[in-house]
Every structure is written in structure tokens, then in C-alpha cells.
Amino acid sequence: MAIQSMNIASRCLGTNTKVMMILPNPPMGKSVKEFYSSNEKYKVLWLLHGGGGDATEWIRYTNIERYACERNLVVVMPSAMGSAYSNWSSKEGNFLSFNMYDYLTEELMPLVYHWFPVSDRREDNFICGFSMGGQGALMYAVNQPEKFGAAAAIGVAAVNMHVPLEEIPLNPTGKKMLMAHERGELEEYLDSYENVYDRMKDLAKMPDPPRLLFGIGEMDISYEAWLEMREYVKNIGLKATFEIRKDYGHNYTFVDLYIRRVLDFFLENV
After folding, report:
1. Which terminus of the chain is more exposed, N or C, with fewer CB under 10 A?
2. What separation in angstroms does the CA of 25 have from each of 36, 69, 248?
3. Residue 66 is part of a domain; what is its CATH number?
4. Whether this model's pTM surpasses 0.70
């Protein structure tokens, strides 16, 4: 595979941002000219990093390059800082608006589709993430299901936003909820795309929702919340696959193991 590193001046983010990509190389037995002039459109994985990471995280901590090569898959890895893949406005404490939710689908995806040999068909697009990235992957899948054939969330549970505010974890999602509450906008926030927990009910009503995979290690810090989410998803009738791996926690040792299962899940109906 080839690794592409790009720095983009993003309008959605109001700043420069880094994107890493994994692209196919010519296979043995096919000439370079034949390979690069084939006009083939490859399936693509939008791969989201966790909190404190950036576009390089998956390449540094897993063997995703080799796994993608084995499956002839393009992988796109954006940087999201600590945004939780949400839009942050200047009134939420930022000097500039940082619209990460919009950036992926409204800016980066069109760029990749038109600059690289990547298919824009729903059935050829998959999204996955670990921790904060898993939250982001799920958020995109439930709000824009027409864009993704399948989605996977590793080591994360959707947050029930109807519990008392003092029980909400102080992650980026929890902080935004507290900010909305302080500004008197909590109900507006609960009605927004960020309330993945409730949006799952809408997804359950779809005749052809994206295929969903949830994986977690039994020693993960989110394990108990994950079990509660699993029960909730079953109760609302949303079809999804839930998998637990014993003796693993919230780290890239587990992620490097489990991402191979994710890739096979995405491609199993091909």
C-alpha cells in the first residue's frame, strides 16, 4: 500500500488540518500502467481516532496498513482534535468555529471522491472508530445512514442523555451538554444530531439501515455502560452485532486485534 499525507486548509474547521490515507499499490502480475489506468473505484473506510489522537494514530498504533492491503481497501483517517466529531461554535468557548461534524461529510468526503480512485456508493463506504472515534462513527451512521453501508464502534457506548446532568461523564459530549444547560439550550441539544442514543430509535425504523458492529474488551472502562446500551438497542429493535473479548481493556492492544474483525465484517457481504 501507499501512505498519503495531506494538509488541507479547511473551511469547515477554519484552520489547516491533517489527513492520512492508505491507497492500493499495483499487485504482483499486473503492470503499473495497467493498474493506474484501470479507473477502478475502491471501497473506502473512514477511520476515526480516539480522544487525544490525530490522523496518525491508527498507523502508529495498529497494523491497519497491512490489514487494508490484504483486503484492497482505501482508508481515510482525518484529525479531529478533542471535538468528539461534533460542531463547536465560538460561543462554546472556541476562538473560531470548529465544525468537525460538517467537515467529514461536506468537505473531506467530496474531496476524496473526486481526487482519488474511491467509490462514493453507499455499499462501498464504511465508517469505524475507537473510543471518541467510535462515538463519532456511530453519530455519522445514525444521522446520515444513506452514506454508509456499515459502521463499527470499538470500546465505546452511546450516552443516555436523559439521566441527571451530574451523572453525565465529563467527556466532550458531557461538556457540551453542560454548556447547553447553562445557556438554556438543553432541549435543543437533545433534539440535535449529537443525541445518538435517541437517534437509534429512528434508525431502527429504517427498512435498510447500515449494518452495525459494536466491539469491546471485558476490562474496558465503558463495559458496564456498553452492556446497558446493548440491552437498549435490543429493546428498540435495532439490528446490530455485539461482541465481547475477554482479558482486553481500553487500549490499542485490543484495537489492533479487533480491527481485523471489523474489516471482515464490513466486507463479508461482498
Report:
1. C
2. 9, 8, 34
3. 3.40.50.1820
4. yes
